[in-house]
TrEMBL record:
PANTHER family: DNA ENDONUCLEASE ACTIVATOR CTP1 C-TERMINAL DOMAIN-CONTAINING PROTEIN, RETINOBLASTOMA BINDING PROTEIN 8. One of its GO terms (cellular component) is nucleus. It comes from Vanrija humicola. It is found in: Nucleus. It comes from the Eukaryota. This is DNA endonuclease activator Ctp1 C-terminal domain-containing protein. One of its GO terms (biological process) is DNA double-strand break processing involved in repair via single-strand annealing.
Length: 181
């Protein structure tokens, strides 16, 4: 049900609900691997489902993991990240200045990627990869700041935070697909 408006989706779900139980079961059976109670449209195939992890390059395991790694050289090869506290720093400083490089002439800069949010994001990540003390082998899924807020949010807030979380994950998956293309 990708690409349907909420109203169309609701109509589609109503149609499914009216099917005889046996037909509905067949419909759901196809998706059984993802959990019994998961309706087909709720299943999201993430980037992780599309690529297999090579255990030889991943400490012998075929899944993502988190581990404490010590040693300057080993840590240097890991992804640099940020946290609530230093995120603002990277935002404020922006891309790392480039030393010992020739000047960039005005017309060399004129590709349409200049100053795009993705490019800026890439530059910030590059900066973090060079200097950040937060290191991880596998980058954790990104979450918006309000995601871990405790208490009872309103339905509106929940939808808002979830939408932002979905967008962050989608952006990162798009970035991974771009890098592997
Ligand atoms: Zn930090």
């Amino acid at each position: 049900m990708e690409g349907l408006s909420p109203a169309e989706k609701a109509a589609e779900l109503r149609k499914i609900a009216k099917l005889p139980a046996s037909e509905r079961r067949d419909l759901y059976a196809e998706y059984k691997g993802s959990g019994r109670y998961m309706p087909p449209e709720a299943i999201h195939r993430g980037v992780a489902d599309e690529y297999e992890i090579d255990p030889e390059k991943n400490d012998g395991v075929a899944h993502q993991f988190d581990a404490v790694v010590r040693g300057r050289d080993a840590r240097k090869r890991m992804h640099g990240g940020d946290c609530e506290c230093c995120r603002d720093y990277y935002e404020a400083v922006g891309p790392l200045p480039v030393f010992n490089a020739g000047p960039v002439w005005k017309d060399a800069e004129e590709d349409d990627e200049v100053d795009s949010p993705t490019k800026r994001q890439r530059q910030l990540e590059d900066h973090q990869n060079r200097i950040s003390r937060h290191r991880e082998v596998w980058r954790k899924p990104p979450t918006p700041p309000d995601f871990w807020k405790i208490g009872f949010p309103s339905t509106q807030e929940v939808e808002d935070v979830n939408a932002r979380a979905d967008k962050m994950v989608a952006d990162r998956e798009a970035e991974i697909r771009r890098q592997t293309a």
